[in-house]
Amino acid sequence: MIWGEKMIPRNQIKKNEKPIDIKEGIYERFPVTKQAFVTVSFKDVGEIGYNHWMNKMMENMIRRMLGGEEGRRQEDNALDMGANALNLLIGQYGFPNFQFLKWDPLFVPEGMSKQPVKLPKDVLSSMIKKASHLYGADLVGITDLDPKWIYSRDLFKPFKITEGMKPKETEDAFLIPRKINKAIVMAVAMDDEMIETSPLVDASTATSLGYSRMGIAAVSLAEYIRGMGYQAIPCMNDTAISIPLAVQAGLGQLGRLGLLITPEFGPNVRLLKVLTDMPLENDHPIDFGIPEFCENCHLCAEHCPSGSISFEGQNYEGVCENNNPGVKKWYIYAEKCLRLWQTNGASCANCISVCPFTKGFESMQCFECKKCETKTGCELQVNTHLRAKYGYLQVETWGDKPRVIRPRRRGL
Ligand code: SF4
Ligand code: SF4
Predict the structure, then answer these.
(1) Whose CA is nearest to atom 2 of ligand 1?
(2) Average pLDDT over residues 148-167
């Protein structure tokens, strides 16, 4: 048994008939150049880039380290740098067709990559999920690759959907064939005790380790798929927007904090995906009551030091230049968040840390939810039961706070 195979079976969670509410005519594919990482980088150094915003964060990291602040010492930052090393080697948070995130086979010989293994879809899907868990994914789901979630452009050139046979990069564009029509979406859980130290450096270390594990899982699964004779595009943050794909693949629902909330780990995960032409069976989107609960719970907004998270209801409009209007959700003021990371001298994860679904949802919190007024019970209670049944929730002594159990992982 590989641990991840114990993820809560999605057929035991209510199916979500309308997981994403889009206003057609307003929504357009999103360009990477509108992300806060890029716009803040440009404001800071006058150049297009993804990581220039980090310069100020590093300056403050060193300043606070030399000031001898607890939780920000040299040894804390050194641990973070070690955790981030594989992320930087593999794909630097994710750039298309870059370093080990290449779109062609890395080591698989042509005798395998051009020889598709012919098996029924359900068998291939099951093999893909086992391999994903073996390569370090804690959660995995499969969905159609809806082109609307592919970025319209990267930093310097567009993504184009083509009728071609192979994904490739030209001087002018990244070409993704329509036949690459499946997304395998994976989540890796972060260390909750380290995340709870946010905004100190240990929380950044948990994030960095998450990125390194993302890279390993993406590259390993892509090579496996190529060895099975199909095409694969390994992605970290790049190429397509992870959260809507994860929602469609049944990994969770979007919360007020602007992140995916999963039944097993809450928002305490990082997402990655592999796009492929392998014939696979889709999973279905799930509804375990997140938008209704977030409506009345404002913990993330209350604990956000930058004021980036809304206390208001969901809307289709967005709140700043980094948002993409047309989807009903809670929009995040992303530049304010990133500016806070810069002055903090480390990334922040307060919103993830305080979310009840990171800590292990407890029944008393049900009183914060509107649905309880109906006295009919709800999907949240079902999910609490499922978390306990599948070993994700543990109550050591009656009356103690429940806590999320860290899975024992086999493989990477
Ligand atoms: S990471 Fe920190 S600053 Fe950014 S939205 Fe979350 S709590 Fe706010
Ligand atoms: S802290 Fe509360 S409002 Fe924020 S995402 Fe979590 S459940 Fe939703």
Answers:
(1) 348
(2) 97
